[in-house]
Amino acid sequence: MSYTGRFAPSPTGPLHAGSLVAALASWLDARAHGGRWLVRIEDVDAPRCPPGLDALILSQLAACQLLPDEEPTWQSRRGALYQAALDRLVAGGHAYPCACSRSEIAQAQPARRHGELIYPGTCRQGLHGRPARAWRLRTDRAGPVTWHDRRLGAQQQDVAQAVGDFVLRRADGLWAYQLAVVVDDADQGVTDVVRGEDLADNTPRQLLLQRALGLPTPRYLHTPLVLGANGEKLSKQNGAQALALDDPAAALQAAARMLGLPEAAGTAAERLAQWAAAWPFV
């Protein structure tokens, strides 16, 4: 099977040290496997994506010599694919419309997980005359989901208990990340998903969607996270600074250390070649 990997940043801010680790890991995994590497701009949540940040991210990647093998794609241009997938899920009895507001969900089931409400399945049996707000995937028939992560090993989650029926299309009409990423990965032939460990928790939901849509399941590898001074994941939300790329080779070396790779010498391109040869997940 030929290898296809991808890096899929959300253009809500410029790349920072943590996102460079994920980009470098996915690029190295593709090169170590002799495969192709794609870049997908995940701008499906348009209100959170200021104009121009997609171009900035692409320029940051180029400065680090992390160049995709095909032209980048944008989720905001792929709505017809997501609608077709939702239609298939509805026709197969896997998805249903939901009329509940967040306040109603909180009143019905105040349980929270990572700050998010666990949906109790209120609208599974119909809307009872209320207008639909969102669309959700049924999880009550699935049972525990198991998978193997190439770095973390055996994983398991009961999505119905941990998350509940999750949103596919939001009340504001925007497509949810879970559906978009599953459709995109399948459409682009992605065989291996390499991304930050904070996204491992999304994997069982994506596996359920893949099964419901009859799509292939990629292999998954979740990389170590870069932590901020407060011990939390370095992110745009907690003030992560944009990459300083006056010295791309040094920025890449710092990212490589996070991945347990050896010190390398030379230009950014020369260091990338050395790390691809030393990549341990082959």
Structure description:
This protein is an alpha/beta fold and 282 residues long. It has two domains: 4-76 and 180-278, 3-Layer(aba) Sandwich (Rossmann fold); 79-169, Glutamyl-tRNA Synthetase, domain 3, CATH 3.90.800.10. The protein contains nine helices and twelve strands. The protein has helices at 17-32, 53-63, 79-91, 102-108, 159-162, 177-187, 203-213, 248-258, 268-278; strands spanning 4-7, 36-41, 73-74, 95-98, 112-113, 116-117, 134-137, 145-149, 153-157, 167-169, 192-196, 219-223. The strands form four sheets. It has a five-stranded parallel β-sheet. A three-stranded antiparallel β-sheet has the order 4-7-10. A hairpin with a 2-residue loop joins strand 5 (112-113) and strand 6. Helix 3 packs across helix 6. The longest helix is centred in the first third of the chain and has 16 residues, at 17-32. The two termini are 14 Å apart. The model has no long low-confidence stretch (mean pLDDT 92). One of its GO terms (biological process) is tRNA modification. Zn(2+) binds at residues 98, 100, 119, 123. Belongs to the class-I aminoacyl-tRNA synthetase family. GluQ subfamily. Keywords: Aminoacyl-tRNA synthetase, ATP-binding, Ligase, Metal-binding, Nucleotide-binding, Protein biosynthesis, Zinc. One of its GO terms (molecular function) is zinc ion binding.
